[in-house]
Amino acid sequence: MASRVDNHERQAIREEKIRRDESIEGIGIDRVEPTPDEQKIQETNQLLAHMPTRLLQVHLEYIAEGSGAYSNYQREAVARELDIRPAAEKILNYVTESDEE
């Protein structure tokens, strides 16, 4: 059974394409200028503030493994945001002796 796109969906797709063409969103090669560092910092902080603690821990694990996908600021921001989270939210990486029994 093939799914059909109704006229409202077609219109929404057209509008989204126009919006992306005007903002050059997702097209790095056509951008006139790079994203300012201040904007990157602000967006990183906002994203991390809303991120679940476990996902922050996953990012920290990738950083610890030497992933080159993170800028210096992102590495520092992940560690800083994780430090301010309550310990109760964090998943410990070790098993205590009582857990093994």
Please give the alpha-carbon distance between the first and last residues.
54 Å
Order of helices and strands: HHHHH
- Extract low-pLDDT stretches: none
Overall body shape: elongated
Largest sheet: none
The helix content is 55-70%
Supply the helix-strand structural class: mainly alpha
- Average the pLDDT over all residues and give the rounded result: 78
Radius of gyration based on Cα positions:
21 Å
Compute the number of strand runs: 0
Draw up the topology in text.
Blueprint: H1 7-23, H2 37-50, H3 53-64, H4 72-84, H5 97-100
Helix pairs in contact: 2-4, 3-4
Description:
The protein is mainly α. The protein has one domain. It is 59% helix and 0% strand. The protein has helices spanning 7-23, 37-50, 53-64, 72-84, 97-100. Helix 2 packs parallel to helix 4 (72-84). The longest helix is centred in the first third of the chain and has 17 residues, at 7-23. The chain is elongated and about 50 Å long. The model has no long low-confidence stretch (mean pLDDT 78). Residues 1-39 are annotated as: Disordered.
Brief overview:
The chain is mainly alpha-helical. It has one domain. The chain has 5 helices and no strands.
Protein traits:
101 residues, mainly alpha, 5 helices
